Amino acid sequence: DYIAVSIKEPISALVWFFIAVVMVIIGTYLLFIAGSVLVCRILQKKKNYYYKANHFVSVSSMVYRMKRNGAGLASICILATMVLVMISSTASLYFGAEDSLKKLYPKEINIQTKMKEVEDLNSENMEVIRDAVTEISELYGVKKEHVVDYYSASVAGYLEKNVAETDSTKVNQFSLNTFENVVQFYIIPIADYNQLMNASETLEKDEILLYTYRTNYTEDTLTIKGGNTFKVKKHIDTFIDNGEAALNVVPSIYVFVSDFDTALEGIRELEDHRGNRMLSLKWNYEFDTQIDSEKQVELSEKLGETFREFSIADSHGIYSYICDSREEQREGFYSLYGSLFFLGILLSVVFIFAAVLIIYYKQISEGYEDQARFDIMQKVGMTKKEIRKSINSQLLMVFFMPLIGAGMHLAFAFPIIRKLLLLFNLNNVTLFAVVTLISFVVFALFYTLVYRATSNAYYNIVSGAKER
Question: Which residues fall within 8 angstroms of residue 418, CB to CB, at 6 or more apart?
Fold first, then answer.
């Protein structure tokens, strides 16, 4: 639970999640086997509580029962937690799919071209490409709206304090902490930032503006190994959505610079251990169309053909491209999230049946074990009403412990699950909180019905002993 609430970064949540799950399972079994017996011992020492007819019988029975059956209750708790986590997370993904889709595809048409050299990112090449997009768009009656137009250079690095190590061979590949510090840097001209955000920021050559996505950065300077050291003039609170950054598992830092060419000095020729160039040069062009979904798909395909020709002809510096339509991706996107939701429901049903069977088996087996003891109590004068009160007190304490435990696990797991959902581009915390709360309430009602049904079976066994 400490791991779940202390993790700050989504990538850290992904790395530590399964370790946290194993630790929670071990802790739950220890708690129900040893901790519950300790609680019963404490209750026995409270005379005002223990020396009452229904409490005396129930607590003394629980001490014996928990020693033998604590593992069963722990299993119920873990199964309940798994049901709640799966249902709440997959349901949130499904009902928040539209938000996630718009994160990955910010506009109706999204184009990204990769260029060979920095020199290819020039106004002449960009103008030719823009004119081609405009010409094709006009054929489909599109008047481009909310246009996003900028270029960037991206490189990955291992960030330690204010230094980004770009040589992957110098990073310990087997440390869990290593993954937490890997960051994708996007270097963007300040002129493009001003144009996109309708701002008027100015920078000196060694100054930068910073925007962080899925991470935090509080240092006053930033050094990219092999490149330059920059002074952080200001931290930016907002920037446009970037589908590539949203899809990327690692966090991103946007670096806005005054001189694009100078900022890339020293890192242009960086290569990984396979000899591939690490610096990726891109031009992003996105816009909305206000035409129907079928025409959007046709437009995207036509634009794709044009960029394919550019790439094959090796013209304008383009060597690869991505041309996506949000509508083109919608069906596959909802199919994926719908499949996850269905899988969550299917596994939840399996785990619920397993939990119900454990509960029913416990009630029946313990009913026959307690039959003789309640038979003796009836012979010495204990009424059926008193038996019912004792049973209710005992079962309420025993069989609602797993539900309470599952609720506590879910509450502590909420932060880490929320960060994992960020990797699926679900940033709607309110939706996730509401779905989680509804899931717990519905499960609690179902659990109560199971308790009522099985407790009646237990009561019928122990109270009918005298007549049999």
Answer: 429, 432
Residue with tokens 């002993």: 465
Helix (H) / strand (E) containing 49: helix 47-50
* pTM exceeding the 0.85 threshold for the entire prediction: no
Question: Among candidates 149, 253, 155, which has minimal Cα distance to 193?
Answer: 149
The mean pLDDT value for 107-127 works out to 87
* pLDDT tens by residue, 426-436: 888 999 999 99
Q: Go through 327-351 and write b for each residue having 16 or more CB atoms within 10 A of its CB, e for each that does not.
A: bbbbeebeeebeebbeebeeebeeb
Distances (CA, A) of 29 to 33, 348, 354, 361, 451: 6, 21, 17, 19, 21
Q: What is the pLDDT of residue 466?
A: 41
* Residue 306 amino acid letter: T
- Tokens 């304490």 appear where? 397
Tell me how far apart the alpha carbons of residues 176 and 411 are, in angstroms, rounded to a whole number: 25
- pLDDT, tens digit, for every residue of 182-213? 899 999 999 999 999 999 999 998 999 999 99
Residues in the chain: 468
Q: Which residues contact 308 (CB under 8 A, 6 or more apart)?
A: 321
Nearest Cα to Cα of residue 228 among 254, 250, 207: 207
Residues 248 and 240: their CA atoms lie apart, in Å, by: 16
Rounded distance, CA 164 to CA 113, Å? Answer: 26
pLDDT digits (tens, 9 = 90+) for 290-301: 888 899 999 999
